[in-house]
Amino acid sequence: MADGGLIRIFKKRFANDIRQGNSLSECRSYGYHNDRLNALLNQQAITFDYQKRKQLIANIQMLLSDELPEIPLFNTTNYTVFRQSTYDGWCFMYDHHALAHSKLSFLEKPL
User: Fold this and answer.
1) Cβ contacts of residue 79 below 8 Å, gap of 6+?
2) Which of 34, 42, 85, 98 measures 20 to 30 Å from 12, CA to CA?
């Protein structure tokens, strides 16, 4: 889809009509409520037409950029040090900071 997962992130962070878990990774912008945003997020989730979905996503991004419900103060970075002579089978994944995130790193590879 056109959103590349971005809309799932928007819904998880900003929608008011979804149940949240207790995990810190499921944190959201508490105190922010916008009925129009909720409607747009729900509408794009059930829209199959690519152009309509693309327009809905643009509207969602515009609304969030206008209201700015959160301002990130920092971004975490992990550093990993490993001894190549011991193990060098790590699989790097885009947008994942820890080597252990990729389960492919732990599969035995053919010689």
Assistant:
1) none
2) 98
* Helices and strands per DSSP (H, E), number in the chain: 3, 0
* Residue ranges making up the domain that contains 12: 6-67
Assigned domain for 11 exists = yes
The pTM assigned to this predicted structure is 0.57
Record the tokens describing residue 54, joined without a space.
């693309």
Question: How far, in Å, CA of 105 to CA of 86, rounded?
Answer: 14
Residues 5, 62: Cα–Cα separation, whole Å: 17
Residue 3 in 3-state DSSP?
coil
**Per the domain annotation, does 104 fall within a domain?**
no
